[in-house]
Write a structure and sequence with these properties.
Elements (H helix, E strand, L loop, with lengths): L1 H14 L10 E7 L2 H4 L9 H17 L3 E7 L2 E6 L15 H20 L11 E7 L3 H28 L5 H8 L4 H12 L8 H5 L1 E10 L2 E9 L9 H10 L11
Antiparallel strand pairs: 1-3, 1-4, 2-3, 2-5, 5-6
Helix pairs in contact: 3-4, 5-6, 5-7, 5-9
Length: about 260
């Protein structure tokens, strides 16, 4: 009887224990929950201390996630690329089980971010993160996904810049009307005309996001691949070689001047 009961309960569990198809690139998106409220006391539209905390969380995730080779961070989102398809003998992290990947990555991000920010910035309560995982059929689509994420960041950063800079002069309803149906270029012009601010003078990390990946470094006379954070990213759509090199090789090999 006990064995039958065990099998029945295990069957319930297994039905919902979904797995990602093997030997496909994995993308994990980790987002902050209700960050607009959590970060309401911080400088807007850009807070360097908040950005530094997100970058530290991104690096922590890259270190903890087996097979991770690239991460992109913008606003309250961290996007991780993990690969286990380079070698037929490579074992997938957490056996490619979606629930485990999502729960563990969100837990890592939540714990690390709150530890980092506890004495650094003034948040409105604890921050929490949630995760979503999916696959792409090939590396080309991984690159396209990262291009899309950077383009999304560009749109969000312009919207945030306009909203919070105009908030110094107008009420929320007026700002909403001013921004309705405006194109990207029109929003940039509005920011300049109303606030005297050139959007391109914001930090590159605010406009283009930041990334974490490995580069060759000489350590004790031996070349080793070490994680770095890059907050001066190119525009991915214009420099696809940058993404392609890292996504395919797992390391940025082209920038040989970094080997020092």
């Amino acid at each position: 009887m006990a064995i039958k009961l065990k099998n029945r309960i295990d069957n319930y569990v297994n039905i919902s224990d979904y797995q990602i198809m093997a030997r496909l690139p994995i993308i994990i998106c980790i987002n902050g929950r209700s960050f607009c409220k959590v970060t309401s006391l911080l400088d807007k539209p850009f807070c360097q201390k908040l950005s530094d905390s997100m970058l530290s969380t991104m690096l922590k995730l890259c270190i903890e996630i087996e097979g991770s080779i690239f991460a992109y961070q913008y606003n309250d989102e961290i996007v991780i690329l993990a690969r286990n398809d380079q070698n037929i003998d490579t074992n997938p992290w957490l056996n490619n089980k979606i629930q485990k990947i999502c729960s563990l990555t969100s837990s890592i991000a939540t714990q690390h971010f709150n530890n980092i920010t506890s004495s650094l910035i003034n948040l409105m309560g604890d921050a929490f993160f949630y995760s979503q995982v999916f696959t792409t059929p090939n590396i080309t689509e991984v690159i396209n996904a990262m291009i899309y994420k950077q383009q999304q960041n560009f749109h969000i950063s312009i919207q945030l810049a306009c909203y919070y800079e105009l908030l110094r002069k107008y009420d929320k309803n007026t700002i909403k009307e001013m921004l309705t149906d405006l194109s990207i270029d029109e929003k940039i012009d509005l920011l300049n005309q109303e606030c005297g601010i050139n959007f391109n003078e914001y930090p590159t990390s605010f406009r283009r996001g930041s990334a974490c990946y490995k580069i060759p470094k000489i350590v004790d006379g031996i070349i080793k691949n070490k994680w770095i954070i890059n907050s001066e990213l190119p525009i991915f759509a214009k420099d696809q070689l940058f993404l392609g090199n890292i996504c395919k090789n797992g390391v940025d090999l082209f920038r040989g001047d970094n080997i020092s």
